[in-house]
Amino acid sequence: MQGRLVLQRPGGTSLSFPLVQFPVTLGREASNDITLSDHSVSRRHARIVSDDQGVVVEDLGSSNGTFLNGNKVASSVVADGDLLRLGNCTFNVELVQPEVKRDEIPRMDSSTWDLSTHSLSPEELEVEATGISAAGLTGASTGAVLGFFQQAGRILERAFDLDELLSGILDLTFQMIPADRGCILLADATTGEMEIQASRTREEEANDSLEGMQISRTILDYATREGRAVLTSDATTDDRFGAAHSVIIQEIRGAMCVPLRGREEIIGAIYVDSKILSHKFSIDDLKLLFAVGAQIGIAVENTRLYDANLRAERLAAVGQAVAGLGHCIKNILNGMEGGSFILQKGIDKQEEPSIRKGWDILSRNSSRLKDLVLDMLAYSKPREPIYEMVEANSVVEDVVELLQERANGEGKILQFLPDEALGEVEIDGKSIYRCVLNLLTNAIDACPDQGGTVRVRTVRPDEEDRFQIIVADNGCGIAEEDLEKLGRAFFSTKGSKGTGLGLSVSYKIVSEHKGEVLVHSKQGQGTTFTVALPLQRPSE
Amino acid sequence: MGVKKVLIVDDEEDCREFVKAILDSEDRVVLEAKDGVEGLDVARKEKPNLIILDIQMPRKGGFRTFAEMKSDEELRSIPVVLLTSVAEKTAMLFSKEDLKEYCDEEPEAFHDKPIEAGTLLALVEEHIR
Q1: B24 contacts in A (CB within 8 Å)?
Q2: Is the Cβ pair A334, B15 closer than 8 Å?
Q3: Would you list the DSSP string of A36-104?
Q4: How close does chain B come to A416, measured CA to CA in Å?
Q5: What number of CA atoms fall less than 13 Å from residue A193's CA on the CB side?
């Protein structure tokens, strides 16, 4: 019995898969006879066999099940007109079709093709790749070839995301090569099976729906096993593939497949094919595709490494955050332990001064704990600024007033020099207050006890849509090796005084306002922080 | 036996007060310094019988202070208790492991913060000279 499966696609188009030889396997993995690039489909989802009962569909233990006319089935005879559904892919089963005979498939005269010249090893191609002639490219001019490699270079430079990289390269490839369908396959890290990572078809409406993207497993195997670039003008008659099953089923008229080489092994392949006879691929098309493959193999490997590093870095950052937090809390606990010890001693000995001292230490450390928690919350919460019109000078002045007494107590001078022309600005007043408070506290801490000066200025440069808050101290300055760590959560140079969160919170608030922080510091001479903020709420 | 001197070097006043309260006794006097720079000054002047040294301090931290003490003929024999606040090595905090980057020698003892009065007192009595 023969027939076909017709896959209905959005936009009213359909794809048909002839059922000629059995069994026919269906699944997400490229080794299936019909590859379905749909995440609701299992890697090896189902197969269709022909036995004495007729044509039978068998579920291969898929996660989401195989449905025949809406009923989940493990194994069931299928009849003409049945609806077969795997994941999001629904097929019409047509079994009383006139038989599909190989002879009926229009053939191209393959006698002019010397097959051995259409499968090239990388070494052979690398020599030849320099000789890509635009005239030989079926779809491109010399300028287009140059443009292609420039654009490919740009994608490779910028892409840190694997999907973005692959789909960018596929789009470019389609501009140059007259393929109907194309995909990039990568070997699964654990099973080694080739899986489709990105695919596209020429037809506009099918771009988003990748189901039905099936590739010739025979051609793919040949390319990845032999490590050769393969071009076949008419796969249905190509001797290398014999009467290979998947080639017949898909009625491929022309296909190219090049391996993607990583540093050590073949990590995947690019595959393109065409069903239309008039779209023949040339040897220069193959060279171009090979050149693309050579470029992106390494890039793909790099992107995967980058992803792995990013994950490791994130884990390390979490570890550091937890360690930093632990450190900070331990310091506070130390203070509390000390406070209660002194308090206890005072009570035991009936000494009023010890009782007072112990109590002071206890309450000071409980407020440190409170500050730490507030900073943590401010740091961890992603937050949109609550914009309001406020006098920027008065926000800064409030902070200066709050800290004036402390600065004076430590023998330090705190000055505020407002730019009277600044006026009202649109900011989140409370957040900016906190930001300036943290910057000023740091500046005061950095100053020597006697002779330290902290100057705060507001500035509205002419013809700029931003204003600045500048905090300058003549304190210890920041060591060059510490400058790059500034603003990193839990990094502190203040010893046990700092939580390492204050500046991180300030940086976060400024970036939420789409502003900037500039730091200028010289060790032993002082530090200047310049916060530049938009005068108005930035448009989205 | 005369009065012995213990120097506590810690930027945090609360911690210094705590150590003073723990070590408060008629045969001991507690000296204070609020960072490594001051600590080395006081140590050279007073030649204490033991130094309790915090690690994270502004100006000069505990590791650098310790390394400088060990390369100073007059100070190298003074026993030291280093106060650590994290037990494990991390990229930016300071633990026993990180000391190796500053100095080959080891202090007489490490003590993890928060300090427990009994343990610190026992350590001081064990190592004081």
Answers
A1: 345
A2: yes
A3: ---TTS-SS-EEEEEETTEEEEEE-S-SS-EEETTEEESEEE--TT-EEEETTEEEEEE-SSPP--GGG
A4: 27
A5: 13
Distance from CA of B113 to the nearest CA of A (A): 6
Q: What's the ipTM?
A: 0.74
CA distance A18 to A94: 9
Residue A150 near residue A242, CB atoms below 8 Å: no
Q: At CA B74, angle to CA B69 and CA B80, rounded to 5? A: 45
Give the pTM.
0.46
User: Contact, B109 vs B123, CB < 8 A?
Assistant: yes
Q: Which of A76, A69, A29 is nearest to A49 (CA)?
A: A76
Quick check: A320 and B90 CB within 8 A? yes
Rounded to an integer, what distance in angstroms lies between the CA atom of residue A14 and that of residue A12? 7
DSSP per residue, A322-389: HHHHHHHHHHHHHHHHHHHHHHHHHHHHT-HHHHHHHHHHHHHHHHHHHHHHHHHHHHHS------EE
Of B17, B19, B24, the CB nearest to A357: B17
Interface contact B35, partner A, CB < 8 A: yes
Residues B21, A326: C-beta atoms closer than 8 Å: no
Q: What angle do CA A118, A119, A124 make, to 5 degrees?
A: 105
Q: Directed axis angle between helix A283-349 and helix A142-158, to 10°?
A: 10
Query: How far apart (Å, rounded) are the C-alpha atoms in residues A295 and A95?
Result: 45
Q: Does B114 reach chain A within 8 Å, measured CB to CB? A: yes
Closest-CA distance of chain B to residue A129, Å: 48
> Is B14 within 8 Å of A345 when comparing Cβ atoms?
no
How distant is the alpha carbon of residue B57 from its chain centre?
Answer: 12
List CB contacts (< 8 A) between B90 and chain A: 319-320, 323-324
Q: What angle do CA A515, A520, A521 make, to 5 degrees?
A: 145
Contact B113 A330 (CB under 8 A): yes
Q: How far is A483 from chain B (nearest CA, A)?
A: 14
Assess contact for B48 and B31: CB atoms under 8 A: yes
Q: Which of B14, B86, B120 to mutate to test the interface with A (most CBs of A within 10 A)?
A: B14
Given CB atoms, is B33 within the 8 Å cutoff of chain A?
A: no
Choose the closest CB to B90 out of A319, A357, A492. Answer: A319
Q: Count of CB atoms within 10 A of residue A238's CB?
A: 24
A357 contacts B14? CB cut-off 8 A:
no
pLDDT in single tens digits along all 540 residues of chain A: 567 787 776 666 667 777 767 888 888 877 777 777 777 888 889 998 888 878 889 999 888 889 988 888 998 888 888 888 888 788 888 876 444 333 333 333 333 333 334 455 555 544 443 334 444 455 455 666 677 777 777 777 666 678 888 888 888 888 888 788 888 888 887 787 888 888 888 765 444 334 445 566 777 887 888 778 888 765 555 555 555 555 544 555 677 888 888 877 888 899 888 766 555 677 778 888 888 887 788 888 888 777 777 777 777 667 767 777 777 788 788 889 889 999 999 999 999 998 998 999 999 889 888 888 887 777 777 778 889 999 999 999 999 988 888 888 888 999 999 999 898 999 998 889 989 998 998 888 888 877 889 999 999 988 788 999 999 998 888 877 777 777 666 666 665 556 667 788 888 889 889 998 988 888 888 899 999 999 998 876
In total, the C-beta contacts within 8 angstroms joining chain A to chain B are 94
